[in-house]
Design a protein that fits this description.
Blueprint lengths: L1 E5 L20 E2 L2 E2 H10 L5 E6 L3 H10 L6 E6 L6 H8 L10 E5 L2 E3 L3 H11 L3 E6 L5 E5 L5 E6 L5 E2 L3 H4 L7 E11 L15 H8 L5 E5 L5 E3 L3 H10 L2
Parallel strand pairs: 1-4, 1-6, 4-5, 8-13
Antiparallel strand pairs: 2-3, 6-12, 7-14, 8-12, 9-10, 9-12, 10-11
Helix pairs in contact: 3-6
């Protein structure tokens, strides 16, 4: 199985660190987020990884080369000319996933300890277009799932915005929708590349919301396990207390 790590972002929330370095190289107890996630994937026999780069791309590439990929075979997807966000970044790397085998996608600033094999097994049994790791936790933006755990919408609780705009009127069980926070980890069928209509810079959230009416986008709930979005200086401190 192959994987992709999203490492091209500017990491604005992690300033001042990201004024001179990429967030992928932020350290937790002496190990970079990049190294930790490469080794996390290795626990599940995933050694083929493509990483997109933009912000201080040379630093990431140099670090990978100096450490021989920490034992994994690392490929670089170069977005130095323009950062393409999650959807555009994945589409640019589509060539890497040619074939019929599902693959894993992770944000580089996510640290977790959950059993990825359980999520992979569920995906292989249910065969949706994609499976999204989620938990029940407080955040500003949520995915909404029906009683079958199929994606049916998105909500920003700070602004009240919902997608699709007619979500409430078009869903008879609107009040019973499951509200889950996305963990930044996906398992995706490569067939998705034939369905993505967007070009250039775009988010995978928009891709999923476009495709959910025709294809199943499922959830995998790992509430109770460790999960930290290492996006701020405060979360770096918290991560150091948990991940040794």
């Amino acid at each position: 199985m192959k994987a992709m790590l999203f490492a091209a972002g500017l990491g604005s929330r992690l300033k001042p660190f990201t004024d001179s370095q990429p967030k992928a190289l932020a350290e937790v107890n002496g190990k970079t987020l990049l190294e930790r996630n490469i080794k996390y994937l290795q626990k599940f026999e995933i050694y083929e990884v493509i990483i997109n780069v933009h912000h201080f791309a040379d630093q990431i590439i140099d670090t990978i080369e100096k450490n021989n990929g920490w034992g994994s075979n690392i490929t670089i997807s170069d977005e130095r000319e323009e950062v393409l966000e999650t959807g555009g970044g994945l589409k640019k790397a589509a060539w890497y996933f040619e074939g019929k085998k599902e693959f894993v996608v992770m944000n580089v600033d996510i640290l977790t300890d959950f059993d990825l094999n359980e999520m992979i097994l569920q995906h292989q049994q249910e065969r949706p277009l994609a499976t999204l790791a989620v938990t029940q936790r407080n955040t500003s933006r949520y995915f909404l799932f029906d009683w079958n755990s199929h994606l049916c919408g998105w909500r920003n609780v700070e602004t009240g915005e919902e997608k699709p705009a007619d979500l409430k009127s078009s869903n008879e069980d609107y009040a019973d929708l499951k509200i889950k926070a996305f963990s930044g980890i996906h398992i995706i069928d490569p067939f998705i590349f034939s369905l993505i209509k967007q070009e250039g810079k775009f988010s995978m959230v928009d891709v999923y919301l476009d495709l959910m009416q025709k294809k199943y986008i499922n959830s995998f709930d790992h509430t109770g396990g460790l999960l930290i979005d290492v996006g701020t200086p405060e979360s770096l401190i918290r991560a150091a207390e948990i991940f040794h």
